[in-house]
């Protein structure tokens, strides 16, 4: 091991503090804005720390009284949850059989490569026909319509993750079960899928994060509280004539909370999922 | 079991995914190609066939060339900065220090923050009247008067790039860190015994391990930066004076704000072609890097 001089040790700790400050300062400021009284945020010089913490905006946004700022926010929260849930379930339902098939039958792997290559397509290349198609089916401004469109993003990604997951489960285990007389679907149900449960969970969380984050299609295909998602609601707040910046910050904190918690809890799984493609080259 | 049956069974399991992909990606893409040769509006009847007019008009317009330059600037500068800062952060996180595990856990935060929340947060920080950046710089006596960081063509793009970098460099750092931890200890030890300085050690011992994963991160980040829409739409909508208008914003304006579906489709396909060329060139580069690193 390299022996380190005291100067180097101090340098490393200084850099670590700087990095921590860069990461934390904007996030901390978002939270501080959300609990600072409006007068503090408009003060010059700016008051960096609220005189008294004010959590009333959280109450405002989470209230469901009609025609309030809260009603718009809570309905978009519900829409985001519904759409992310439906799109994730549908993506997994497509990804699990497809991922297994490609993993066990490499001869059809090119079809998955084609599906994954669609990642390069900018969403604007699909937006006009999707808009016209949804309009034709009466699915504009509709949570089902948006969940369907989200499959363009979720399905290729989850299939790729599931395929990598199945790759790491030895096919000999499946073969052994079949020799013992289990049929294919019995083998998958009893042997393979339980072993793949962690990968399924990771894929599902990735899919939820992707759906939760999506903005472009939601902006185009939704127009009111029936289907608007959180990202659109927040962009509305940020771009509108809201005079209380703390309220915008509060909406941001609430929208960030679920993905940030998922990120912290699932840290290891998410990083290995993100880097597996990278490290394998 | 015969291999024909195995292959047929695999195709059957693949079928639902392929059907959905054809419905939500394949068909819209083909339809976009068809639309791009018409003067169709977003609402109303199909429009008339106009040949390559949309393409020639688009490619010769000053809007397009200016937007292409803006997009390239955004992509090149933000991805380059993310790579450099990300690798530096990874080298730091690979050292021994107190609180390393916590700092590594914190790196996931910017990545997990939704893009729109990130954009909103930085929009508040850059606010011309009450923003934290103006307050901090004034209180440190670095500027005399509050400035409109997103409202001036000279600073808006830089301000956007900073916000984009902050969100994305931690991902590069985590990918690079995973690669660094795969560098065998005895190799770094041997290079020390051989008397290699820090720079040579990084260049010849560590970089070969980083090259493959970093190339993949570079490809993915560049493609995403080239397609960028969300962060710009929320922070500037392409303004001021179109100084931050990227290709995806231009397509949105053409197809949805001005409702010119045909001409928007042609522009969307030009963007698709550019991204594809970029991706193919990169893929060749990745293969080369992986080959030389192995």
Descriptive account of the structure:
- The complex is a heterodimer of chains A (281) and B (294).
- Chain A is mainly α and 281 residues long.
- Chain A has helices at residues 6-35, 38-42, 56-62, 69-104, 109-117, 124-137, 143-167, 171-179, 184-195, 197-213, 216-221, 230-239, 245-265, 267-280.
- In chain B, helix 6 (115-125) packs across helix 8 and helix 12 packs antiparallel against helix 13 (261-293).
- Chain B is globular, with a radius of gyration of 24 Å.
- The model of chain B has no long low-confidence stretch (mean pLDDT 90).
- At the A-B interface, helix 1, helix 4, helix 5, helix 6 and helix 7 of A face helix 1, helix 4, helix 5, helix 6 and helix 7 of B.
Question: Any chance you could write out the topology, listing elements then pairs?
Answer:
The complex is a heterodimer of chains A (281) and B (294).
Chain A: H1 6-35, H2 38-42, H3 56-62, H4 69-104, H5 109-117, H6 124-137, H7 143-167, H8 171-179, H9 184-195, H10 197-213, H11 216-221, H12 230-239, H13 245-265, H14 267-280
Helix pairs in contact in A: 1-13, 3-4, 4-7, 4-10, 4-12, 7-10, 8-9, 12-13
Chain B: H1 3-35, H2 53-60, H3 62-93, H4 100-106, H5 108-112, H6 115-125, H7 132-139, H8 153-180, H9 185-193, H10 198-226, H11 230-235, H12 247-257, H13 261-293
Helix pairs in contact in B: 2-13, 3-8, 3-10, 6-8, 8-10, 10-13, 12-13
What attributes does this structure have?
heterodimer; A: 281 residues; mainly alpha; MetI-like fold; disordered C terminus; B: 294 residues; 75% helix; globular
CATH level-3 fold name of the largest domain in chain A = MetI-like fold
H/E order of the elements of chain B?
A: HHHHHHHHHHHHH
CATH class of the largest domain in chain A: Mainly Alpha
Share of helical residues of chain B: over 70%
Which second-level CATH architecture of the largest domain in chain A applies? Orthogonal Bundle
Number of strands of chain A: 0
Shape, principal axes of CA atoms of chain B? globular
Structural Rg of chain B? 24 Å
| Distance from first to last alpha carbon of chain A | 29 Å
User: What would you call the shape of chain A?
Assistant: globular
The total count of helices of chain B amounts to: 13
What about the largest sheet of chain B? none
Keywords (chain B): Cell membrane, Membrane, Transmembrane, Transmembrane helix, Transport
Family (chain B): Belongs to the binding-protein-dependent transport system permease family.
Protein name (chain B): Sugar ABC transporter permease
GO biological process, one term (chain B): transmembrane transport
């Amino acid at each position: 091991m390299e022996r380190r001089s005291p100067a180097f040790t101090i340098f490393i700790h200084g850099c670590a503090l700087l990095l921590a400050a860069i990461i934390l300062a904007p996030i901390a400021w978002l939270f501080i804005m959300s609990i600072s009284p409006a007068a503090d945020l408009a003060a010059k010089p700016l008051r960096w720390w609220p005189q008294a913490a004010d959590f009333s905006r959280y109450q405002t946004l989470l209230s469901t009284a009609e025609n309030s700022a809260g009603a718009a926010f809570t309905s978009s929260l519900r829409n985001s949850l519904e759409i992310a849930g439906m799109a994730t379930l549908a993506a997994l339902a497509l990804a699990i059989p497809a991922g297994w098939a490609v993993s066990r039958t490499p001869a059809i792997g090119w079809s998955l490569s084609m599906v994954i290559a669609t990642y390069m397509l900018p969403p604007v290349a699909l937006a006009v026909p999707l808009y016209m198609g949804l309009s034709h089916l009466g699915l504009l401004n509709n949570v089902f319509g948006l969940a369907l469109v989200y499959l363009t993003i979720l399905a290729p990604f989850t299939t790729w993750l599931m395929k990598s997951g199945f790759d790491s489960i030895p096919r000999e285990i499946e073969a052994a079960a079949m020799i013992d007389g289990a049929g294919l679907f019995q083998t998958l149900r009893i042997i393979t899928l339980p072993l793949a449960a962690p990968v399924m969970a990771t894929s599902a969380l990735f899919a939820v994060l992707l759906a939760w984050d999506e903005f472009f299609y939601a902006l185009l295909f939704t127009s009111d509280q029936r289907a608007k998602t959180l990202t659109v609601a927040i962009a509305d707040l940020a771009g509108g004539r809201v005079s209380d910046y703390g309220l915008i910050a509060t909406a941001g904190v609430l929208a960030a909370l679920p993905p940030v918690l998922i990120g912290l809890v699932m840290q290891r799984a998410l990083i290995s999922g993100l880097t597996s493609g990278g490290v394998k080259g | 079991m015969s291999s024909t049956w195995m292959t047929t069974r695999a195709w059957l399991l693949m079928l639902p995914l392929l059907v959905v992909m054809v419905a939500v990606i394949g068909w819209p893409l083909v339809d976009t190609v068809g639309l791009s040769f018409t003067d169709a509006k977003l609402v109303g009847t199909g429009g008339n066939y106009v040949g390559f007019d949309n393409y020639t008009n688009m490619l010769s317009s000053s809007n397009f060339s200016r937007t292409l330059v803006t997009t390239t600037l955004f992509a090149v500068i933000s991805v380059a900065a993310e790579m450099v800062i990300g690798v530096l952060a990874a080298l730091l996180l690979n050292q021994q220090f107190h609180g390393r595990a916590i700092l590594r856990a914190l790196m996931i935060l910017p990545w997990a923050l939704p893009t729109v929340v990130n954009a909103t947060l930085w929009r508040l920080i850059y606010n011309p009247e009450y923003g934290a950046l103006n307050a901090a710089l004034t209180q440190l006596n670095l500027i005399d008067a509050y400035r409109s960081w997103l409202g001036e063509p000279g600073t808006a793009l830089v301000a956007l790039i900073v916000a984009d970098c902050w969100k994305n460099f931690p991902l590069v750092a985590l990918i690079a860190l995973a690669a660094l931890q795969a560098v065998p200890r005895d190799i770094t030890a041997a290079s020390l015994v051989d008397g290699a300085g820090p720079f040579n050690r990084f260049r010849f011992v560590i970089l070969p391990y980083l090259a493959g994963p970093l190339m993949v991160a570079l490809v993915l980040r560049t493609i995403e930066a080239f397609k960028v829409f969300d962060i710009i739409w929320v922070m500037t909508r392409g303004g001021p004076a179109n100084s931050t208008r990227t290709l995806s914003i231009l397509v949105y304006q053409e197809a949805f704000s001005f409702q010119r579906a045909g001409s928007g489709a042609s522009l969307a396909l030009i963007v698709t072609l550019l991204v594809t060329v970029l991706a193919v060139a990169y893929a060749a580069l990745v293969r080369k890097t992986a080959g030389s690193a192995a």
